[in-house]
Amino acid sequence: IMHSAEELTDWGMSIQFRLRPFGDGSGLGLALGPHWGAPEGDDLLDRDEAFRLDQAGRQQRQMRGRERGLAADLGYGLRAFGGMLTPYSEYRLTSGDYGSISQVAGVRFSNSDALQFSLFTERHIARPGETRSRLAVELQKYY
User: Fold this and answer.
1) Among 26, 61, 79, 126, which residue's Cβ finds the most Cβ atoms within 10 Å?
2) 82 forms bridges with which residues in the sheet?
């Protein structure tokens, strides 16, 4: 992925090994692999603040583009309630001066490919020592 706007550029790349034994999402699912550049989901260019960064902010973003890390996802899909119920866990480790650790654990329900409901808890540890935790509910509808 690569985005740019004037003097601000975000890029990222990852390689993943995925194991999904059944195409319908049931059973054990596993993903593991390294990543380089801006972390996935960091979508700075989708926010207004991207266009209000000063020179120091732009330099900090460029340093974050040099980061690398490891991502792992684990889940087990079960047929329940007329859809797929999947308890899951995610782990993201990013190295570098602006590195972080992100841990997610939750449950996801999908009754089709177009509707998904998730209830999860997330813990994000940023260096140097800033920790944030949250409990979240997400509802996604795909068209």
Assistant:
1) 61
2) none
- The answer to whether 26 and 60 have CB atoms below 8 angstroms apart is no
Residue 115 CA to residue 55 CA, distance in Å, equals 42
Pair of tokens at residue 110: 């999908």
Q: 105 and 121 in contact (C-beta within 8 Å)?
A: yes
Closest by CA to 113, choosing from 141, 76, 73, 81, is 141
Q: Is the pLDDT score of 49 beyond 50? A: no
C-alpha to C-alpha distance for 139 and 143, rounded to whole angstroms: 13
Closest CA to 95 of 134, 37, 43: 37
